Please model this.
Amino acid sequence: MVRRVLAGLCVGVMCIFGASCGQTYKLESIAVTPSTGYSFKALGDTGALVVVATFSNTKTSVVTGSSTYQVGSSTAPNNAAPLGVVTVDKSGMVINSSTLVACTYDPVSGAPYPYPVTVTYIENGVTATKIVPINVSTAPGCNSGA
Model:
């Protein structure tokens, strides 16, 4: 009798553990830190982006190195923010890497027109995206909006 109870108990425990094995959880969203991005004032300024994925089982995972980063064009007035000023490497490091003088602020109103960095993470066919702004004020007399 005791053997039957123990055998039944073992089978029950194995079923519980077996039911959770092999389950995949759906990607729900990503968060990028800092969500407000960066404001660079000098050549060589850097800042790190950290990407954390949240899954349907509420677990989170740092996916910075598995994410992709695309820097878009700034809509700064008078083309004052050319492409190539801001780069993002595979590790999420954002760099003011150009020797070009740039300003992503309107010199009159001080309104920011940042470079949008689109951060994307894909897992099991599910895509999550966030946009982080990067402002640059390396031009002489650039209004930083302050």
About this structure: The helical segments are 2-20. The radius of gyration is 24 Å. The first strand starts at residue 27 and ends at 33.
